[in-house]
Design a protein that fits this description.
Number of domains: 1
Low-confidence stretches: none
Strand order of the largest sheet: 2-3-1-4-5
CATH topology: Rossmann fold
Helix content: 55-70%
CATH superfamily: P-loop containing nucleotide triphosphate hydrolases
Bound molecules: BIS(adenosine)-5'-tetraphosphate
Number of strands: 5
Largest sheet: 5 strands, parallel
Radius of gyration: 16 Å
CATH architecture: 3-Layer(aba) Sandwich
Order of helices and strands: EHEHHHEHEHHHEH
Strand content: 5-15%
């Protein structure tokens, strides 16, 4: 299965997509993790991405796509994957669809995790990653509204979008996700 997770920062994309990938025995691919690793290693992409991430802005599409395409071509991705944090713009979604069409492999599911603003802020401030300062979090949430939300219509029109209530415990949210995936497999 090929599944994408969409949601604002703090919605639980990382938390849930790791679990789902483990349950389905397919790779979990997080563009956030790939970009952070590139920054840590000081690769050319990492050096360019760092400034965007530290200020809460989306990294330019071409850089993110380059880093992800390399990973998607690896052997373990040929039977499916869970994408966490990609696509984040309509241009990234179109690029992914083109890539999937070339291989005759459609996207099976787009999961939107919904959580209200106040709870997102609380979760991220408590987590305290480098980019989890209040100013940067607000910028990331604004970028989500401006650039990522239009993706929901994109996937709705393609009939693959499922909305998940992300307010409860990670276990309860995961059960909701598994129910959607099981229904899809029937
Ligand atoms: P990401 O790494 O994707 O980070 P994120 O949006 O903050 O979400 P994350 O998945 O980590 O957090 P989660 O909600 O699971 O992106 C970081 C940056 O990388 C972006 O700002 C951007 O600059 C760049 N980037 C990444 N992908 C890109 C792309 N495609 N295009 C352009 N730029 C890109 O969890 C947050 C916290 O909530 C955790 O502490 C977790 O434990 C907690 N939590 C989760 N679910 C919970 C629950 N049900 N109950 C209680 N707590 C919960």
């Amino acid at each position: 299965m090929r599944i994408v997770f969409i949601g604002p920062p703090g919605a639980g994309k990382g938390t849930q997509s790791v679990r789902l990938a483990e349950r389905l025995s397919i790779p979990h691919l997080s563009t956030g993790d790939l970009l952070r690793e590139a920054c840590r290693l000081g690769t050319p992409i990492g050096k360019q991405a760092d400034e965007f991430m530290q200020t809460g802005r989306l990294v330019p599409d071409d850089l993110v796509q380059e880093i992800l395409v390399e990973r998607l071509e690896e052997e373990d991705c040929q039977n499916g994957y869970v994408l966490d944090g990609f696509p984040r713009t309509v241009a990234q979604a179109e690029n992914l669809d083109e890539m999937l069409a070339e291989h005759g492999m459609p996207l099976n599911l787009a999961m939107e995790i919904r959580v209200e603003y106040g709870l997102l802020l609380r979760r991220l401030v408590e987590r305290g990653r480098d980019d989890d300062t209040l100013d940067v979090i607000k910028k990331r949430l604004q970028q989500y509204n401006d650039l990522t939300k239009p993706l929901l219509d994109y996937y709705q029109q393609r009939d693959v979008l499922h909305v998940i209530d992300g307010h409860d415990s990670p276990e309860e949210v995961f059960e909701r996700i598994v129910t959607v995936v099981e229904n899809q497999r029937i």
